[in-house]
Amino acid sequence: MLPAILSRRRFSELSEQEIIALAVSSEEDDARIYRSYAELLRAEFPDSAKMFDGMAEEEDQHRHRLIELHKKRFGDTIPLIRREHVAGFYARRPVWLVENLGIERIREEATNMEEAAARFYENAAKHTTDADTRKLLGDLAAAEAGHVDTANRLEQEHVGDDAKAREEKQAHRQFILTWVQPGLAGLMDGSVSTLAPIFAVAFATHDTWTTFLVGLAASVGAGISMGFTEAASDDGELSGRGSPIKRGFASGIMTTVGGLGHALPYLITDFWTATTVAMVVVFIELWAIAWIQNRWMDTPFWRAALQVVVGGALVFAAGILIGSA
Fold first, then answer.
1. Higher model confidence: residue 248 or residue 307?
2. Angstrom distance (rounded) from CA 316 to CA 199
3. How far is it, in rounded angstroms, from Cα 219 to Cα 217?
4. Mean pLDDT of 223-252
5. Positive or negative: CA dihedral 107, 141, 83, 86
6. What is the dihedral of CA 244, 249, 251, 254, to 10 degrees?
7. Nearest-5° angle of CA 65, CA 69, CA 72?
8. Where are the domains of the chain?
9. Which is more confident, 112 or 88?
């Protein structure tokens, strides 16, 4: 990494030809990124995909103008120089770092891309003494600033209020299907299914450390099982529920968290103190599940509370009765 950093050239060391070449490669990269965004969004958000198609075309037009300028001044052979070759030049995030963050984050990233480019060229122009180079950098800064206006115009053209509302609704639905639904199922399974074994062991042994180990094993084991089951049950292609890996992680992690919630209190050495704290945690867990169902799944709160709290209470009582037998 260090040799690569040291090998970068300062912007002030670039010739005018190299500056034009750098601008050409940058416009080409940005057009490619916008087309990647368009392809990512085309199936679920066609209006936003059209917006990014339009932005890619704008980048192509600027690139063609820069190429014509280079041909006129320096000939047909354009030097190979890219952002990573120049110290301090603005970087672009890889598409794979942004694509999983949602449509609003992608739109925000596009705006940041153009604003960063404009700022760079403006600052570079201020530190340039050559008149022609200064003019070139100023023109590039104006072009990049114009791209921000173009993005806003294209968003208004292709992503009106109705389309935006429709896409936001779709994004919300996808979030529910990919993260909330499997996570809630995992939390319910981890919280409720581990109640009986944990409290059965607790009341059978009155040994807090043994109870904690059983709770830890039950929680981790249930989390692994739920995670793999969720990931293997549906690849998301037909159901539209999204990535099986994401759903598997959501389900597995929340299952483990649900079980550990009332297992961790048994790290307290006093049995009755630990049990009292665990009971309070169980109460909080069950009401939290009811709230999540009401908030994200549109289940009436008291109906959700009746289902979860009553069911959890029955499992909890079964564990105590079995452990006390």
1. 248
2. 7
3. 6
4. 78
5. negative
6. -170
7. 140
8. 2-159, 165-324
9. 112
Q: Name every residue whose Cβ is closer than 8 Å to that of residue 249 and which is 6 or more positions away in sequence.
A: 227
Q: How far apart are CA 319 and CA 315, in angstroms?
A: 6
Residue 141: C-alpha distances to residues 27, 66, 81, 116 (Å)? 13, 13, 19, 10
pLDDT digit string (tens) for 209-231? 999 999 999 999 999 988 888 88
Provide the residue type at 227 as one letter: G
Six token digits for residue 175: 């979030």
Strand, helix or coil for residue 143: helix
Q: What is the pLDDT of residues 60-104, one digit of tens each?
A: 988 888 898 788 888 899 998 888 888 766 667 666 666 565 676
DSSP 8-state class, residue 236 = S
Q: What is the CATH number of domain 2-159?
A: 1.20.1260.10
Query: And the tokens for 133?
Result: 């180079």
Neighbours of 73 (CB within 10 A): 11
Give the Cβ contact number of residue 318 at 10 Å. Answer: 14
Model-level pTM greater than 0.90?
Answer: no
CA angle at 111 for the pair 107 and 117, rounded to the nearest 5°? 145
Distance between CA atoms of 51 and 33, rounded to whole angstroms?
Answer: 13
Query: Is-contact 316 323, C-beta < 8 A?
Result: no
Beta carbons of 44 and 102 less than 8 angstroms apart: no
- Single out the residue of 133, 47, 216, 168 nearest to residue 176, CA to CA: 168
Euclidean distance between CA atoms 30 and 8, whole angstroms = 21
Instruction: Locate all alpha helices (DSSP H) within 159-240, ordered by sequence.
Output: 161-175, 181-193, 195-205, 208-233
Helix (H) or strand (E) holding 35, with range, is helix 16-41
Q: Tokens 């319910």 label which residue? A: 188
> Quick one: angle between helices 46-74 and 103-126, nearest 10?
20
| Run of H or E including 60 | helix 46-74
Token couple for 172: 């919300």
Q: What are phi and psi of 139, to 5 degrees?
A: -65, -40
